[in-house]
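Entry:
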Amino acid sequence: MTFGNKRIVFFAKLSSIWKYSRTALLLISIVGLSGLGIFLYADYAAKKTIETEKTQILLEEQQKRLEEAEMKLDDLKQQAETQTDNLKKRVEDLTESQNRLLQESKQSTPKEIIISSADIAQYLTGVVQVYCNLYNGGSSSGSGSLWTVSNIGYSVLTNKHVVTGSKNCIIMSDEVLVKDLSIERLYNWNDASDIAILKIGALKPNDIVPPSNFNYKISQLRKCDVKMPVGSPVVVIGFPISGKQGVTVYGYSASDWSRITTNGIISAYDDTSVYPIGSLPYFNYFVSAKMDAGNSGGVVISKDQSGLCLLGIPTWLSIGKYENQGIVQNIHNVIYK
């Protein structure tokens, strides 16, 4: 074999070796790349798994926080509802307390007490005029109230000074017309008060209105407390001389007396009726209601929270320089035994 042929054979072998080497390198490369790919995929998968686990943990944490937040929200709602209920209850309690205090205030604050015309209407005709002829030739005029008194019967309650020294007395009013009084005996409950009880005369054939039909409601009227407050309202009913008018009937002169009603308040207490000056147990009253001669023996009505009551008997006048005050005998002094 020549040198040239050897070169050819050498290069041919070399070429063959290169060919197989390239194939081997290619296979190695492919295998290497495949291994690298598998490694990279495994790394990727591992990382992906870790991320998924982290995400799951985050989601679980978020879910847990959400549940905790919902529980806190429920607690807050419950607290809010409880506070709202407590506030409502407190408002209700305060409202109830306020209403109770307002009611107590209304009850404890006395209302203004007024004596109306309707209040006294049924008692007016129970007050009559008392007219007496005196032994000295004169006359006396006053007022009286109709009573039914135990052991006496139908009677007139008046002041003793109205009938003292009389030889005969009558009562007059539009309702009873004219009726005799029995003056043979003057009754009273005590000698310390200026009071006289006169029995109404027996029924006569010419009596238009029998005594049994007279108005005796005053004797049934509740008696006031023994010491009514100063400022209490009063009404005085009687036949004062200021209500007297001269009239001429069929050529004859006569006098017409009107039943007069005046109102006022209890101005003060008259302590001259009690010890050490007087001998009666209770104060009499000064009243601002107008009184005049002729009112003596009438009635004074007052009123308290329980309604109308009989205060006493108008008896005297306290004459001032510019004003007068009526003095009323306390009904409890009148009936004191």
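The chain has two domains: 29-109, 117-334.
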